[in-house]
Amino acid sequence: MTKRIPPNLKFSRKHHDEARETSRWLVESKLIKEKCSGYNPEFKGINNEIKGIDYVIQIDSEIDTHIDNVTLRMVIPEDYPTSLPRVYPLDLIIPFDHRAHVYRDSPANGRKVHLCMVTQGEWTRDCSIAGLMVLSAIWVHKYLIWRKTGKWPGRGRTHCNRCGNIGKCDC
After folding, report:
1. 3-state DSSP call for residue 145?
2. Residues 6+ apart with CB under 8 A from 67
3. Measured on CA atoms in the order 34, 39, 45, 51, is the torsion positive or negative?
4. What is the pLDDT along the chain (171 residues), one digit of tens a residue?
5. I want to staple 11 with a disulfide (CB 3.0 to 4.6 A). Which of 15, 132, 136, 144 is the partner?
6. Order of all β-strands in the sheet with 69-75
7. What is the maximal distance between C-alpha atoms in the chain?
């Protein structure tokens, strides 16, 4: 289980039991409403199936005086919660730079850049969308500091300079 997701935003046995009785999305949406309502989440979907969430991160004026907020889109994979959602900036231009802790999508997906907060290997069914939303807010603030100072705040992991993957890469 990943240590990156805040403990109060991980799925507990109680959450898993409730999800079995109702649905994973019902439990996820409750967590989002309880813990992430300040991000003004807007669910995107088709036929009552959630495909993504747009949400807004407020920026601390001490970090950047030119940006008030950043809108992010979390894209939910079809096999969620088995696979890790991807988070893309909508109104903040982030060019690919492996030092910025980002991944680059495949050419088939337009080589868009998405945020690196958790690896697929760290993602488990105990992780939640609300937890990933909180991590993405932290990531945005760290990115803005890095953009200003050239030094990533806190601990980071080395990324491939071509695709952004962590660890051994075959690109």
Report:
1. helix
2. 59, 92, 144
3. negative
4. 467 888 999 999 999 999 999 999 999 999 999 999 999 999 987 666 678 999 999 998 888 888 999 999 999 999 999 999 999 999 998 988 878 888 888 776 777 899 989 888 889 999 999 999 999 999 999 999 999 999 988 776 666 666 666 766 666
5. 15
6. 42-46, 49-58, 69-75, 86-89
7. 49
